[in-house]
Amino acid sequence: MSNLLGWPSWRGKTIESAPQAYMLSLGLKSHAGNILGGGISGDEVLSSTASEKMMSFYTKNSAVSGTSVGYYHKHEVSGIAGSGVVGRIYGYTNVAAALLVGAQITAETGAAGKVSALLVGCRSQIILADDATVAPTGTISGGQSEIYFNGDNSSTTDVAGSTHSIHRFIVDGDTTARAKVQNLFDIVNVSTGTSDATKMLNTANITASHGLNVLVNGELYSLLLDKH
Fold first, then answer.
1. pTM of the complete model
2. pLDDT per 10-residue tile (average), the chain, 228 residues
3. Residue 14: left (phi > 0), alpha (psi -120 to 50), or beta?
4. Are β-strands 210-216 and 22-26 bridged in parallel, bridged antiparallel, or unpaired?
């Protein structure tokens, strides 16, 4: 391992005598990061230890007001016609692995813990400017689940033999508690109409051969079905 000494810029280059120096342990690896990094594709930071965390931070905040943040990263795109991704977490395997998850985000309450306002495992949010002159022309969505296939025709992975879906909903754990979960969706502050732009479900890009009629509070609704 190698050590990196950090120090205030006004102290010049005499870092050995800087009492405010912070020491960080970095792996002896080249990397593609502009600020920090470890390893590159083909020359990764390697380990064969079971259940090892390659990076690990444990933090705690005891303040009784405000909202603490365990990790904060803001990335601004300042170039006209530029593009940006604030964070990319990439899982990859080229062997017969048992499990691969791109990102697992968890919010947990302990035996004495409870949340009086909002408890969510993951919150995706888009904030639009306070400017009525701005008129976005692209696709806007608070969240997107996607399956993407590499390859071309016969070379593409065949998922026909798997249990698959574009999005999956699970209630797990204690059997008694599971039975009390009754709502699959909770739709808040969404106004709907009859046009494609204001439908609860925009079916403009859906091909369906059949429909299933459902009577809800005396009103007839149709669910789209397609024969396979």
1. 0.72
2. 48 48 54 83 91 94 96 96 95 95 95 94 93 88 93 85 92 94 82 64 66 72 68
3. beta
4. unpaired
